[in-house]
Structure to design on (902 residues):
């Protein structure tokens, strides 16, 4: 058993080169796929056993899709005979010795390293905000957000039944980027469309969704006409947008914008991201966010055997910074995998990395979106047509036929029957701050339910 | 808003009777459905926001189905205008005053009470075993079992890669009833069929699944020929069965049968159940397991306004005890609902409760099962045909067209392509006892992966 994988030797007697990929996101997967037929050993390490299709994570958080529709075991995706997958975590890296130590104790010696461990939430040093305002990066995060949002309506129903009133159903979303906008639109959809008739005492449609954005505009990366369109579409969904407003404190049950207090039954974090700490472990130059500065071949300075791909790379293409989203991550991973394949074959190095930008899209709830399309045509789309484009593109890029089919079915069902697909509350029944909110005196009276 | 639900009055000016249903399992749901058109107010309280189709829970635990395929929000099932659903927990019951107090503080006054809170695991007083050997009652349990089973293979792969050996992949299942047999067969299926080719270092097919049953036979409620058939079918799946063997201790990494120690990377509990503690709260006669002794109209002695249904009831039908499974639970719930409907209409009381027994079925992995059919024909089925019957019946009884379709699709996929549907590990990466198991000295050596 021991040598089942590593014991095979190359025909000419040379030792096969070992490629270590850290991270099973878009960049890591694409790199492994590009190396599937190369004459190398590939090891991919990820903390989780599954690849998550992050652009649809908010749909799990907001009860449209279920986790297994947008996540798949990495082992099931990477089946090439030259590739092994380890579910493990990096403890330390020795770039000089080309050696990485994992939590289980495994030490991986390698000839090439592809570092693609992405980014995580940044609470700007306020780590105590993390459990009060969860962000959205993993399946676990999505299930937790779903739990909180659905639970808020349940608790309000209970309290209405008990006392005749309930705390304002305010959902505050910190950050007005694509994730913030998607979360806000979806919560509004849930409240107004999907669960509206499920409750007897409260009116879910009275929920308020508020986006708080520090900069002067939401969707900062989009052109002004699409920002304006997004604002209009959000207004149609009754989502309030507060731009130029900085959150100064988050407490159970409310957030502070300077002196102003906004009650909030559920606060979500879509504001800052920071690079994975593995970037700094490399011991090379990183930028302000902790992203690794790479040259035009995705190498950090002085390390032609290392590629940094995806969110974690501070890369440029034609002089412009490459954004930290899925498309460039895939392209970088593919570039790194192909570069190594060529090098191992003794062929000429690839041209510098070039980001082929097809554009950006953000949905704003059911049938609403903005799209800044750059390929196959150039144009700004809004509303239903942008939304439909978004749907098509995301189905197309989902990994695995089965998932595509399943997501298509769930969407068709949700959009046709106004019924959400995956509305389970899994976990406990507490919300931070609920107990301290607006609890009238003497709420243990025996008010008969028939009064 | 306050009186949206309770404020309506009956045409003739009389006050509408209030029915309180505790528990959203099969019995509680059926009772609520039987009362949907009755001239009463119905309140159903459950700790969780969803109804779980328990007969298929083991398929979530073993990665065939995803949670939302077998669970649905109770609100989405019970939409009758006279019915409200509260996600809450019972704190105390006052049967004299006909009043139940919930955790949120809500006090529910009622004219009728239908108690259907079922049963939970019993560790026979050894509560410290609970986290070492999880049982299978809720979606949370199922996700936890799935995490442990899949993680065991991942950890073994890591350790094999690191040290060249790994702990024996023993899965010990305590209890040889239907749940134990279903869990055992499914783990064997996973190891031998579904994930076999996913690993490079370990051979998942070498996993050992061991059922430990205290009594002399597995599937105690089945006739001897089906017990024998089940044993044969389990043997074909390489499942070891130890009957007449009592677990005396459970520790991280192993279980003890008297003096004998069996290593176990994952131990699962399918042995004892005990009645929900609400049975005792009623202050009436309960049996040894805590089940409420009821008369032939499902009333506890002296309480014609209370019905106890499902697992929690120690009921008899034609002198024989009614088993604690789904079919009689549904029939009891329906009976209670109809009794109240008739009583409110001033009509004659129903005949005593009679359990219409259609038979029992237990699956033993893919294409294997036993069925003791009593209706529409009498007969003992084994093997593929029993399995196919099981499949058909369970699809038929699943609540909601959407779930049926989805489960059918997942099964078709799994059984046609040998690929499991929902193999995500959600949660942390630790297994109790893994660290203390079989760890060779000096495992932090830098063995190159190419050796």
């Amino acid at each position: 058993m021991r040598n089942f994988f590593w014991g095979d030797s190359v025909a000419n007697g040379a030792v096969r080169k070992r490629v270590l990929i850290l991270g099973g996101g878009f960049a890591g997967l694409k790199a492994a796929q590009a190396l599937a037929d190369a004459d190398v050993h590939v090891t991919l390490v990820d903390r989780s056993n599954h690849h998550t299709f992050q652009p649809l994570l908010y749909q799990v958080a907001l009860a449209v899709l279920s986790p297994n529709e947008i996540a798949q075991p990495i082992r099931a995706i990477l089946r090439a005979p030259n590739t092994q997958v380890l579910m493990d975590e990096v403890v330390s890296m020795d770039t000089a010795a080309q050696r990485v130590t994992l939590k289980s104790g495994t030490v991986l010696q390698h000839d090439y390293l592809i570092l693609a461990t992405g980014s995580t939430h940044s609470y700007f040093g306020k780590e105590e905000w993390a459990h009060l305002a969860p962000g959205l990066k993993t399946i676990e995060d999505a299930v937790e957000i779903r739990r909180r949002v659905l639970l808020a309506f349940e608790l309000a129903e209970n309290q209405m039944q008990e006392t005749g009133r309930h705390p304002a159903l305010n959902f505050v979303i910190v950050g007005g980027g694509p994730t913030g906008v998607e979360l806000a639109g979806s919560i509004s959809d849930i409240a107004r469309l999907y669960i509206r008739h499920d409750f007897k005492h409260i009116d879910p449609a009275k929920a308020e969704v508020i986006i708080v954005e520090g900069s002067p505009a939401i969707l900062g990366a989009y052109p002004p006409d699409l920002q304006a369109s997004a604002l209009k579409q959000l207004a149609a969904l009754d989502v309030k947008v507060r731009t130029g407003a900085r959150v100064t404190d988050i407490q159970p049950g409310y957030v502070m914008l300077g002196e102003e207090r906004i009650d909030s039954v559920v606060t979500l974090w879509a504001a800052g991201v920071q690079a994975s700490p593995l970037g700094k472990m490399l011991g090379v130059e990183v930028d302000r966010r902790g992203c690794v500065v790479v040259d035009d071949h995705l190498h950090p300075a002085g390390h032609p055997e290392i590629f940094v791909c995806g969110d974690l790379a501070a890369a440029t293409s034609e002089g412009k910074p490459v954004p930290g989203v899925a498309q460039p991550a895939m392209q970088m991973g593919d570039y790194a995998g192909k570069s190594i394949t060529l090098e191992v074959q003794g062929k000429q190095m690839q041209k510098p990395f070039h980001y082929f930008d097809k554009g950006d899209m953000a949905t704003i709830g059911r049938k609403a979106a903005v799209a800044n399309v750059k390929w196959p045509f150039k144009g700004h789309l809004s509303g239903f047509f942008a939304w439909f484009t978004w749907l098509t593109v995301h189905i197309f890029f989902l990994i695995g036929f089965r998932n595509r089919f399943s997501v298509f079915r769930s969407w068709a069902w949700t959009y046709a029957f106004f019924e959400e697909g995956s509305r389970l509350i899994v976990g406990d029944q507490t919300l931070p701050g609920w107990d301290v909110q607006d609890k009238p005196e003497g709420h243990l009276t025996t008010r008969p339910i028939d009064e």
Notes: Residues 1-11, 437-451 of chain A have pLDDT under 50 and may be disordered.
